Amino acid sequence: GVEPLWAEKYRPAHVTHLVGNGDHIKRLMHWLTNWDSVSRAYDAESKNGKSQHAQFKAALLSGPPGVGKTSAARVALTDCGFDVVELNASDTRSEKALAACATDMLGNTSIADFALSGHPGHVGKQCKMALVMDEVDGMSAGDRGGVQLLIKLIHKSKMPVICICNDRQSPKIKSLANHCLDLRFRRPGPKEVAIALRRVAKAEGYDADAPTLEKVAEACNADIRQMLNLLQMWRPRGANLSQADVTSNMVAAFKDVDVGPFDVAHKFFNHANASVESRLRHYFVDSSMTPLLVQESYLSVHLNMPPGMPPARQQMHTLQRMAAAAESIAEADTVGVRITRDQAWSLAPLHGALACVRPGFHMAGNIGKVNFPAWLGRNSSANKRMRLLHECAAHMHAHISGSGEEVRQAYIPALRGPLLAPLRTHGVAGIDETLGLMDAYSLSKDDFDTIMEMQLLPAGGAPDITHVPTNAKSALTRKYNKTHLAVQKLKGAAAAARNEKRFDEDGAGDDDAVGDDDEHDDDDDDDDKLVKQKAKPVAAEPRKGKGKAKAK
User: Fold this and answer.
1) What is the pTM of this model?
2) Among 89, 158, 408, 540, which lies 20 to 30 A Cα-Cα from 334?
3) What pLDDT shows up at residue 533?
4) Where is the composition biased (Acidic residues) (predicted)?
């Protein structure tokens, strides 16, 4: 007969057959085992009006393709005694289809239980069923309302619901994740995969050592299904598999995979035998993000120490390696400035060698999780503060002559104390004094917050906005909005009307013909109009038959 595919022949039948993500699988098994108590606790919290739940009626398995999410869901449910109903992207998953499926499942009995119902001594019971929603991130516009109804189904469900997706960052998945036990699967390491492959190869009479199978795992990006298919295809060529055979056979069998900077950053440190060319290919996956990941991670690497090095010498060796990596990263920054300033993109390979390859060589070892670059967050905060500083300086320039740097270095530290002192000392009674100082420098409430935020406290800790009573801060905001925002809106409306009138009189292309003096005079006139004048008494018309009317 036809030999079955190894991927089907050795499909995991129990949880112990799964490779990698052991902690997540244990959590999933514990959740399924205690499903009845979890469901009761969830319903009790819902009856009490709680929107945030400590327990979940659904689990979300997310991660890249080929890591065993679907296999883990099927095997875990089977081991816990559940019958599985699975829907994937090829099925109709609209709101109506999901509603019909859920209605049918809640009252169904399995065929096995139905067949045994006529046997003597059989006690009928409702079947334990579970719903597996595969590829929920693939719900398109044709599945309109599917995600929203799935969330409603989870709230009312009397059975476990396991959702599976690849793109954890999808907006639809983010809303769904709030109602699920969040389990994020990762790719198993080459060594873990090689152990499982070696058991299969041994069962099939195929001799392959661990390093050879690890090389296959790296080439296939830990896709176990593809690796089993390749081994089955190579098996008729001989009973032995060497690394040379893998190199020659993989020329036509390499898998095209979509990798990101987080997938390749660790390879600069723990792939000692990788060539410079292959490491540069990792750099060009994302030439702007990968160097930041290397810079963020190189200090957390556990170095591979030379054999026989005494412990007293290891600390000095570590510091020397760190210094060499830091120097290389600094040189890479210089090259990066040259690339962006002069558009010298021919220096990109040099930048990759200095920013990624060389630090990875100096800090070769084992690295755990690659952290998100902290520089991106700090750079975003710096840009925000720079923008707020420019706005504050622009408002103050009507009364001062300093530059933006001088405002930051001299004016902001000098103004912070006088702005805070009345509020700290007198509370609500000091609001007028603070607003008067703000008006003297044309500061808005946003500028006030900017001045409070931009502070470098000395060692002793200078007073800041946290020392002001809460009622005083709230009263300051209310009074500022009441006395200032209305005037600002009127000024904005007057300026818009003036510009529209000027456009109508002078034409679209004659804006430059308007003199500065005229514009200044217009501003003065508009400002005067904002001041309410006391209404003059108006004599009312005499009414017939009533005599003279008195002035109001």
Assistant:
1) 0.52
2) 408
3) 45
4) 506-528
